[in-house]
Structure formats: C-alpha cells, structure tokens
Design goal:
The chain has 316 residues and is mainly alpha-helical. It has helices spanning 2-8, 10-13, 20-33, 39-45, 47-52, 56-60, 75-78, 91-98, 100-105, 109-125, 129-146, 166-178, 195-221, 226-229, 245-255, 258-280, 307-315; strands at 230-235, 238-243. The chain has one domain (2-315): P1 Nuclease, CATH 1.10.575.10. The protein is globular, with a radius of gyration of 19 Å. The structure holds zinc ion.
Length: 316
C-alpha cells in the first residue's frame, strides 16, 4: 500500500522517501565528522560511498517486498500517548506479543536498526569492507527515518486529517529550502552503552512530535488560500506541484528548529552507533583495507562544494 502511496504523492514530496535525498545524504555525510579517531580516517576515506548510498534503502522498497516496513513504525497503533511503554524493545518479543504479520504491517524501524547494528558489528569483525560500507550507509538511512515524526504514525502523509502532502513538506521541502540556516555539527559521537534504548528514545521523540507537525500545518494553512499555498516548479522535463516558498517559510517559522534538531539528533546517534559497532567488534585496524566499490560518479555524492575542505580541516 505504502509503495503505491509514495508514487501517487510524489508530486508533493519532490524526492521519494524520508528526508528526501538531500537530508539522507547530509546525515550520512556529517555523521562522519562526529567519529573519534581512528574510525574517522576510515569513514573519511570512504565518504563518497557512504553519502551516495544513503538512499539505497528507499530505492529498494519498490523492489523488495520486506523492505518498506523497515522505514517506519506506526506508534499510534500500539500507544495512545507517550510514554512508549508497551512495545517490546526486541523484535522477537514483539512478534510473540502481537504476531509477526501484525508487527510487519505496522513497521519495524527501531527493531531493524538493531538488526543492522548486529550485521555491521559482524562485518567489522571479519573486516569485510564491502559489507561495512553498505551496512554503514543503510544504517544511516534507517537512523534518519527513525527521527522523522511522520515515520512514527499511521497518518504518515496527513491523509487522515486532510493534510495530504505534509510528509514531503516536513522532510524534503523544508530542508531543501532552509538547510543553509542549519548548524549540523554536533561534536564527537560517543560509545553507546544501550543502543537499543537510545534507538527507542529517538523513536519516542519522533512519535511525541507528530501532533505538533500536523497542528502547525493546520494553523499556518488558515492564513493561505490554496492558490498561495501551492505553486508549480520545473523539475527536469516535468512540472510538479509543490508548497509555495511563502507557505514553506511560514511553516518553517511555526516549527522552529524542529527539522534541524531532528537532523542533528540523527547525525549524533548514527556516529555513535557506527562507533559502537566498531568497538564491539574489537576495534579492528582498518587502515590497510582497500575497496573497489567506490562508484565512478562518486564525486556527485558530495553535493556541498566545500565538503572536501571540511574533511581536510578535520584531518589536521
Ligand atoms: Zn526510508
């Protein structure tokens, strides 16, 4: 169902999938700067891959049946309000409690992050560089999704409240228009003693923001006629309907630093989880690892013109 939904409403999301392509790539990129030495050197050398493949998981959701449910969890199916205290932390326990079909039907993102961490830790142990890079990029994607409020509700595109299109507004349109105002540098990531708890905390925060995300859109919409709320922009050869700059600005004002804050939290948690997997794998020496998986067009992945300068700065 959700695959169909995403195609239907692509006109408002600009890019398919959570955070848009911009947000996911940015989260993976900046998370590299949070890493303590010596892991930073390894990720820096492979930054192009980690950034370029930040959206592979979204591309797979239309090809692999089991992929879609890894990107969200409908908190409202299980809990009426915060705190989240009835959903088991572990996937197996959740399946025992609700049945696996039910669990999958309502999304598994916090649990899938645990699976990805297990696989990444194993890849570090065997120094399988292809898997390390692939899993690191994918883990970044799911951590990013877990921080998006509209990935924490069954009303994921405002379809239940007559707010269709809000998904793309919050996670694509706002970061694409206002990212220059964001400060995404978070400081150094730390080892995570209880990654399961940290992941569920991130999810719970997302779930707690759902009402505000929706209420603010309603409030701002009262001041805009439909003709002012939307506009048309050319994207390649097609013309697409998007929220107008004026409306997006008003919504950005209303939500304040929420989008920036969720990106920052994603970045810091992702750096911490990468680092935790590496430490739990016994801190393998990665300096000699070489790879040929870097794509020919890797440079395209680094869309900020000063990215290389920033990387250089961290080296010193
Ligand atoms: Zn996703």
């Amino acid at each position: 169902m959700r695959a169909i939904f995403f195609f239907l409403f692509a006109f408002l999301t600009l890019e398919l999938g959570a955070w848009g392509f911009y947000g996911h790539k940015k989260i993976n990129e900046i998370a590299i700067y949070t890493l303590p030495k010596p892991l930073f050197a390894f990720y820096k050398n492979n930054a192009a891959y980690i950034i370029l493949h930040a959206v592979d998981a979204d591309k797979r959701r239309y090809l692999i049946e089991d992929e879609a449910c890894r990107h969200y969890l409908d908190g409202d199916f299980y809990e009426r309000a915060l705190p989240i205290d009835t959903i088991p932390f572990y996937y197996k326990e959740a399946c025992l409690k609700y049945g696996e079909d039910t669990v999958k039907a309502h999304g598994i993102v916090p649990w899938h992050i645990q699976t990805m961490m297990y696989r990444l830790t194993e890849a570090f142990k065997t120094k399988d560089i292809t898997q390390i890079l692939k899993l690191s990029a994918d883990l970044g994607h799911y951590v990013g999704d877990c921080h998006v409020p509209l990935h924490a509700t069954s009303n994921y595109n405002g379809q239940k409240t007559n707010q269709v299109g809000i998904h793309g507004l919050w996670e694509s349109r706002l970061p694409e228009l206002f990212n220059r105002e964001y400060d995404l540098f978070t400081g150094v990531a730390v080892y995570c003693d209880y990654p399961v708890k940290s992941t569920w905390k991130a999810y719970e925060e997302s779930y707690g923001l759902v009402d505000s995300v929706l209420a603010m859109e309603k409030k701002v919409s009262k001041h805009f006629k439909p003709s002012k709320k939307y506009t048309f922009e050319k994207k390649g050869n097609t013309t697409i309907k998007v929220y107008s700059k004026e409306f997006s600005e008003a919504y950005q004002q209303a939500v304040g630093t929420m989008v920036e804050d969720r990106m920052r939290s994603s970045i810091l948690l992702l750096g911490g989880l990468w680092y935790t997997c590496w430490v739990n794998a016994g801190q393998p020496d990665l300096t000699e690892l070489k790879t040929d998986v870097i794509p020919a067009n890797a440079e395209d992945a680094i869309d900020e013109e000063n990215s290389k300068e920033k990387l250089k700065g961290r080296e010193e």
